[in-house]
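Structure (tokenized):
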């Protein structure tokens, strides 16, 4: 079974357009509705680090069973995690789908912000490193020319607003 088939199998029958979104036209609000609570992103983080079973997540996070069960169900229903039952196993395992893996940049951005702003100077914390053991460079948003994009140099084009292209784009 392919990732797409597993993802579709794990989704609820409810159409995303019918869900009770905080701000239906805003991608940030929809994302926060899906993964913005304390436990969901930590589950995604731990899945990226190899957690696969209910027990793995429970031991790593120390979260109450009912909360963990609810979050795993929600992440699976929305195609962020997929489940499978290995041959001969009694319980299923969880793994990130392609859309779940795409949350890596979100987790890295949050991690790097936390490294800069959530610790006192010199306070010890974990560090994300690449396969060579080097610190991962600071995440930056760049425009098509490679220049940094900031809140001051970008804006949101609201849904229903015509796209206006500047010359040469």
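Design, position by position:
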């Amino acid at each position: 079974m392919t990732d797409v088939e597993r993802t579709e199998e794990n989704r609820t029958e409810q159409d995303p357009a019918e869900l009770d979104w905080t701000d239906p036209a805003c991608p940030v609000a929809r994302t926060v509705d899906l993964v913005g609570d304390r436990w969901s992103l930590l589950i995604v983080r731990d899945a990226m680090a190899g957690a696969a079973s209910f027990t793995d997540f429970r031991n790593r996070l120390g979260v109450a069973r009912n909360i963990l069960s609810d979050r795993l169900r929600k992440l699976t229903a929305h195609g962020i995690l997929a489940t499978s039952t290995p041959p001969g196993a009694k319980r299923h395992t969880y793994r990130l789908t392609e859309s779940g893996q795409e949350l890596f940049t979100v987790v890295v951005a949050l991690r790097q912000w936390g490294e800069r702003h959530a610790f006192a100077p010199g306070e010890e914390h974990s560090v994300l490193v690449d396969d060579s053991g080097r610190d991962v460079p600071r995440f930056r948003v760049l425009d098509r020319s490679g220049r940094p994009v900031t809140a001051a140099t970008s804006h949101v084009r609201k849904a229903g607003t015509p796209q206006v292209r500047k010359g040469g784009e």
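Reviewer-requested clarification: The longest helix spans residues 104-117. The chain has a mean pLDDT of 88.
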